[in-house]
Design goal:
The complex is a heterodimer of chains A (293) and B (334). By secondary structure, chain A is mainly alpha-helical. Chain A has helices spanning 3-34, 41-63, 67-90, 98-120, 147-169, 171-181, 183-188, 193-215, 225-240, 245-265, 270-284, and strands at residues 136-138, 144-146. Chain A has one domain (14-224). In chain A, strand 1 (136-138) and strand 2 (144-146) form a beta hairpin. Classes of the chains: A mainly alpha (293), B mainly alpha (334).
Chain lengths: 293, 334
């Protein structure tokens, strides 16, 4: 492998890893803070990708269009949807056993998949990246790298940074961290924990939907894409340690590199590598790399 | 065990035994499939309900049992079940031993994911290596027999054999859970720390449960392979592990009947919503109905389908009285 190919694969790993982080961060937050195993999280990603495809013409008709306008509209819809979903389906689940949550969110997966099938159909679609980002960067005489992928990495990094700042520097972040440690204590201090949970859930859903939307131009939009990403995201969450954003970032990047380079170097065994890695890490550290305190 | 439960189970098995008298070819095929799923669900119930271990890699043991059945069947004659069945169950149990030794170091959600990881490894071995025919899977030319007594190629014979397996597994697990071993498992489920401090080597108990469960899942795999005469990697995919978990949660965790009821409810709900006769064109969107039913069942039936009678008594006779009864019933279970 020459240097340029290596560089390209590194950039691809980074982009994939960061995108995974974006989806998994919502999952680990909802899991770590609210204690809910949300199987429908992958569906949010799928919904995002389909929104990027299906909303574009509608947004174009109302607001004059553009990829970024679609992103904003999708994000707004996701926040509202997350807020309503938490109220309708999750608010009564916190006191129940984990397995009941698994069952409920499994039901939601089926409903989301079928609604998607009824509204948009079962076809595979492609989404065009916006015109300004459609170009490529020359790396050598023959090799180029698409600008859009760099854009994804940059956006994901910005969001990760934003999340870090919200968590460590704001009052909301403080309340969220406190809520994950001791629900009753936070409540007795006069903080509306229900509202807090609703905000966390809406934010988690919005981030997953956003990830789906910006991923749509690089991975095509297809039925079942949510389930594939869900399992990998759970891998990210447990390798990183449940509830740990830092761990999720590290784990996502690790998986990005292992998966991308695995496909190049040992294509026969590429699928299994991630799982072998997870098993080894969990045998070495039975509660993930960073256990959230 | 209370009399009503024994009566329920006996009635259910009698109904299953009489079913072929009234059913057509399709019905027999369907119920055979559901009963195999019920055996599979029972294997998981031993772990989830009996021991408190949520295994998300149960499909690996099913798949290994099924693959072993097809791979070990000779091309030019029928294999004898006498050796084939035990060998297949043993193969699955051996993999369960390996997975158990490693994964039981972790607990909770981490355990869920480690068991998934080992199932995915088995999946990729079947999917990406020529060992099991890759993505195409492999066919079994001649189905196994037991001398001239049983020929599993006959749908009715297979139905009877599957029912017998189901009853055997059900009875075995019912006895096992009532034995000292089963009580120790229940103790581990409720409070592992306390069990350890009273001198139980909990790891050994959990591992034994895991291996037994793997062996039973291997039996389900054998039945699957024999019924379809065909295996492919999809049998090991995580969807299968997920579905069987959904079945036992739907039925109600903590009681063997729950696994049975869940397997039937899940499969029959699918059949119901897929039926063209009832839903016409909408039948192709069957997942919507299934999903909404599952959501409704979580919202309305916190104890699963198996808890419905108890919920009804609570409604009818007031909460405090029935709660006392429920408490008694639960204590008996443990």
């Amino acid at each position: 492998m020459d240097l340029i190919t290596f560089l390209i694969q590194c950039l691809n790993s980074l982009q994939y890893g960061l995108l995974l982080f974006l989806v998994a961060s919502g999952l680990t937050l909802i899991f770590g803070i609210m204690g809910v195993i949300n199987l429908a999280h992958g569906s949010f990603y799928m919904i995002g990708a389909y929104m990027a495809y299906a909303l574009a013409p509608i947004v174009a008709a109302t607001f004059g269009g553009g990829f970024f306008a679609t992103l904003l509209v999708g994000l707004a819809l996701a926040v509202i949807a997350g807020y309503v979903l938490e109220w309708a389906f999750f608010s009564f689940l916190y006191e129940r056993e984990h397995l009941q949550q698994v069952l409920m969110t499994y039901g939601l997966i089926l409903v989301f998949e079928e609604l998607r099938s009824m509204l948009v159909g079962d076809d595979v679609h492609g989404v065009q990246p916006p015109a300004i980002l459609a170009g490529t960067l020359p790396l050598s005489d023959l090799m180029t790298y698409p600008v859009y992928r760099l854009f994804i990495s940059a956006v994901c990094l910005l969001l990760a940074l934003g999340m870090y700042l919200v968590f460590t520097r704001t009052r909301l972040g403080m309340m969220i961290r406190a809520g994950s440690t001791n629900r009753e204590m936070v409540q007795s201090l006069g903080i509306d924990i229900k509202f807090l949970y609703r905000v966390v859930f809406a934010a988690g859903m919005a981030v997953a939907v956003f990830a789906g939307m910006i991923a749509a131009p690089v991975s095509s939009v297809y039925p079942g894409m949510g389930n594939t990403v869900l399992i990998i995201c759970f891998v990210v969450v447990v390798i990183g340690g449940i509830g740990s954003i830092r761990g999720a970032l590290l784990a996502a990047l690790l998986i990005g590199f292992v998966d991308t380079f695995g496909k190049v170097l040992v294509p026969q065994a590429s699928g299994v590598l991630v799982y072998v890695m997870m098993a080894l890490i969990l045998l070495w550290k039975p509660s993930g790399l960073f256990k959230a305190g | 065990m209370k009399h009503s439960k024994v009566i329920f189970s006996i009635l259910a098995f009698v109904a299953l035994a009489l079913f072929p008298l009234v059913a057509g070819k399709y019905g027999i095929d369907l119920v055979t499939k559901i009963m195999i799923f019920a055996v599979f669900a029972l294997s998981l119930e031993l772990l989830v309900g009996g021991t408190g271990l949520v295994c998300f890699g149960q499909s690996a043991f099913l798949g290994i049992g099924a693959y072993a059945t097809v791979l070990l069947s000779p091309q030019n004659g029928a294999a004898s079940m006498l050796w084939l069945l035990p060998v297949c169950m043993l193969a699955a149990a051996l993999y369960a031993l390996l997975v158990g030794v490693l994964s039981l170091r972790t607990s909770g959600v981490y355990f869920i994911m480690v068991t998934l990881a080992f199932a995915q490894m088995a999946y990729y071995v079947a999917h990406d290596t020529p060992l099991g025919g890759g993505t195409d899977g492999i066919y079994m030319t001649i189905k196994p027999v037991l001398g001239s007594l049983l020929d599993l190629d006959q749908p009715l014979t297979l139905y009877a054999f599957t029912l017998a397996s189901l009853i055997t597994v059900f009875g075995f697990l019912a006895l096992l859970l009532r034995s000292r071993f089963g009580r120790a498992l229940a103790g581990i489920r409720v409070n592992e720390q306390r069990m350890r401090s009273t001198g139980f080597s909990t790891f050994g108990y959990k591992l034994a449960a895991f291996v037994i469960s793997g062996g039973i899942a291997g039996l389900a795999g054998f039945l699957f392979a024999v019924k379809d005469g065909y295996v492919n990697p999809e049998l090991i995919s995580w969807h299968v592990s997920g579905n069987v978990l959904i079945m036992i949660i739907l039925g109600g965790i903590g009681q063997l009947r729950g696994a049975l009821i869940g397997a039937f409810a899940f499969a029959l709900l699918q059949e119901l919503f897929k039926s063209d006769a009832l839903f016409g064109d909408f039948a192709k969107h069957w997942q919507l109905g299934l999903g909404l039913t599952i959501i409704a069942s979580v919202a309305l039936l916190p104890r699963g389908l198996v808890g419905v009678p108890q919920q009804l008594t609570e409604r009818l006779f007031g909460r405090s009285n029935a709660a006392g009864m429920a408490h008694g019933a639960e204590a008996e279970d443990e």
